[in-house]
Amino acid sequence: MPVILWPEDEDLWLDREKYDPDLFQSLLIPFDPGRMRAYPVPKIVGSPKNDFPECIEGLRGSSRNLLSFCRRPILVQAFFNIRGAV
Predict the structure, then answer these.
(1) Domain check: are 22 and 2 in the same one?
(2) Residue 16 shares a structural domain with residue 49
């Protein structure tokens, strides 16, 4: 399961010397889907052997939101299983 961390929490999350389940649990808060961006990426992303900056760059001229990738409309709240998020 992927996790989205705030930059100031990354070192704590990766610290192998610390093991505090309660502390880690406190970092697992739902991320506001309104702050997320979804965009098409190049086909090279499909292979784990490709580790280039181009893998995280959007394709030129592609600026769409998450819902535009769906064939039928969905509620963002249902997609992310977050109540009250808009």
Answers:
(1) yes
(2) no
Q: pTM (2 decimals)?
A: 0.43
- Per-residue pLDDT tens, the chain, 86 aa: give them: 578 888 999 998 888 888 888 888 888 888 888 888 777 778 888 898 999 888 888 777 655 555 555 555 444 455 455 554 44
Residues 80 and 55 in one domain: yes
| Cα dihedral 2/63/75/43 (nearest 10) | -50
- The DSSP secondary structure of 20-84, one letter per residue, reads -HHHHHHH-----GGG-------GGGG-TT---GGGGSPPTT----GGGGSSS---HHHHHT-TT
Domain range for residue 73? 35-86
